[in-house]
Amino acid sequence: MSTLHGHVAAPGEANATRDAEGAGGGEAGTMSSGHVARRGEIDVSHSVILYLEEITVAFDGFKALDALSLSIDDGELRAIIGPNGAGKTTMMDVITGKTRPDKGSAFLGQTMDLTRMSEPQIARAGIGRKFQKPSVFEAASVLENLWLACAGERGWFSSLRQRLAPGQRERIDQAMETVGLAPERERLAGTLSHGQKQWLEIGMLLIQDPKLLLLDEPVAGLSDEETERTAQLLRALAGRHSLVVVEHDMHFVEQLQCKVTVLHQGSVLAEGDLASVQNDARVIEVYLGR
Fold this sequence. Notes:
Elements: H1 18-23, E1 28-30, E2 36-38, E3 48-59, E4 62-73, E5 77-81, H2 88-95, E6 103-108, E7 112-113, H3 119-125, E8 127-130, H4 142-151, H5 156-161, H6 168-179, H7 194-206, E9 212-216, H8 224-237, E10 242-246, H9 250-256, E11 259-264, E12 267-272, H10 274-278, H11 281-288
């Protein structure tokens, strides 16, 4: 698979937090609200799960991100739109540790400095990423795909031979119900529709309980009905998870019923509800057209 970023670290697993890096990495640090944070726990005491501040990334002199600043609230569903080359993919690369910024800071909650963490550490901390093209095991059933997601880093055959641990069956059943694939549990993933494959991969991420889920054009190539069902799914996930959705389909963005951020030339051009963004003269000029 391309990635299964959503695995969450158990208390005590390696992570890079502001307290740990700056004070020797004790077993616990004090949250800003005064209570004690266990290692591996995301501090959302200020109700914000992601902070990007003045992030700059340049490739051969071209600034893919230019002092980009934004924040995502805990449990929020946010749509990110913008023309090609606006910096949307680079932004997600920075959040997941694939790309290191030249300047700026990126934090998961109050304490986890994403710029000082590796991609696996960021994944274990609770950030999941779904790319545009669904990545599932087509020769395996829906159930087996979710089983493999539960198994984590173990190999294919060893994973399928092992019994499910207590609670894993419930997690798998819940994920299938959430993404609407319970009736297809024994069906081979390769025979699913494109939309069903997208939902299956979302389910595989949900198995790992990501706190922040990044989705890149999740309805590209989907039918109108599948697009509507995907919007319903993402709205239902908001609150239990924080979601950032990069999208070009404005009808789908409208169905998400969420705050919209417009990127242009590597920084935030406009932000607000969809109606205000669509009526912004700058957004019309550079993206929506007249």
